[in-house]
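Sample intake sheet
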Amino acid sequence: MVETETGGFGDTPAPSLEHAARKAWRALYPESIEPLDVEAVQTPTRGKRTTVYRLKGVGPQGSAVIAKRSRASKAMLERITYEEVLPHFPGPTLRYYGCAQEEDGDFSWLFLEDAGGEPYSSHIDEHRLIAARWLGLLHLTAAGLNVQALLPHRGTGFYLGELRSARATILENLGNPVLDPADLSVLRAIISHYDVLESQWGQVDALCGEMPQTVVHGHVETRNLRVRTTDSGSVLLVFDWETASWGTPAIDLAQLIFDSVSPPVVAYLSGAGPLWPRLDARDVHRLAHIGGLFRTILDISSETYGLVYEKWASQGPEFARNYARWCMHDLRTYGTALDQGIVTLLS
């Protein structure tokens, strides 16, 4: 299901967006040749309005350029990262070609080198090792940059606020007529888990307080990474910085949850260790588990909007029912992860 020219959802990408990608690229590079082809890489899905195209042949030596269209606020975070953070990073990064805002100001286009390479897999030890070292180097380098005022702050209080907001939304919508008894059982379990987690939040604050704040990617997952083979070995390339923030890096260390990168803690400490010499591998393991809880909290928050019957009923009862079904499918998975994460935190 992808965005159509009318802004709804259909089966083919909107030709107007393909044209807009070409237009935005030419605004930045008026002397550029026309793309040999424009390939749709990512199209809008439920709850996500990002569109990604591959412009073939317009980069250096005829390489492809990735054109990413997203909300202007999200594009700005990526622009800040590529312009103010990554130029100081001593490791490999994608080449950034620029950003162009659409005329109405609601959306912007970001242009990047095509990462290519092979997909990242947390089942391949070499991938996990280079990811751990990359993240350690990022957190160490970025902690010394003066970019706090440019990025949103996401300390532990941010995640506690998300927990409370999602819990309130769930409580307010337990009367949704499309929810069945099994759904209500899942939702009440999430509420119960959240009550327990909130009661232990002082433990979360204390451990995260041991880590200096730094630039955080916030969504380090397998789909946002590629591994490229070079003459000097394999290198990691990271993209999709639209959740970049300044705060505790625990969320970037999440282990074995959904499609997390699961960086080995010892390898991570080899890069980031100078930042927090008081922490040992056991402490960082606990931080990684907290990072998994942070990821789960954000994922639950992203699905609770589907429980608001009044929001979707205007498009028909069947649409509202299907939307709730989609969200409940994910909430069941996240509820299980939440239960496991709390058990680990309390052990």
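Comment: The CA atoms of residues 299 and 334 lie 7 Å apart. Residues 1-12 have pLDDT under 50 and may be disordered.
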